[in-house]
Amino acid sequence: MVSPAFGFGVQAAEVEVDPETGKLKLIEIVTAHDCGQVINPVAVLGQVEGATHMAAGAAFCEDQPSDNGKILNPSIGDYKILRALDMPKMIGIEVDTYEPEGPFGAKEAGEGLTSPTCGAIANAVYKACGVRVKDLPITPEKLFRALREKENR
Fold it and tell me: Active site residue: 28, 99, 101, 111, which one?
């Protein structure tokens, strides 16, 4: 897709980690987003929250393992996604700017915000417990192993 202008965004996440089990809980995600002139604030907030939900799923539970190209969980029933109840408190801050090349001064809203979420969540996990899991999704099993390795050093 060709765009005359690109939106900018940044996120911060807060998580809770149970060091005994590796279980993660999203507490809060704050997003600051520059989408140019905000034309429809409710729609922009929906795009921000939808992008955050999608990317948080990639960070926490959405996994598609394969063996030599064969998908090992081909059923949607075996594909874990975040439910509405799994989502944290979300705060959206729109940075109102004007983009002369965009329609009515607007840029994009939503798609660009799928990029910072995984990093924000991974950094929150590191800050919460001092271990970095570099292989997404950050499952309780991976985090539990990383915490045990940290203990054994």
Answer: 111
Asked if 66 and 125 touch (Cβ cutoff 8 Å), the reply is: no
Of all helices (H) and strands (E), which one includes residue 70? strand 70-71
Range of the domain at 21: 8-151
CATH classification at residue 25: 3.30.365.10
Which pLDDT does position 75 carry in this prediction? 78
Q: How many domains does the chain have?
A: 1
Structure-token pair, residue 141 = 């099993």
pTM, rounded to two decimals: 0.88
Q: Mind listing the pLDDT tens digit for each residue in 82-112?
A: 888 989 999 999 888 999 988 899 888 877 8
Q: Is residue 2 part of a domain?
A: no
Active site residue 111: yes
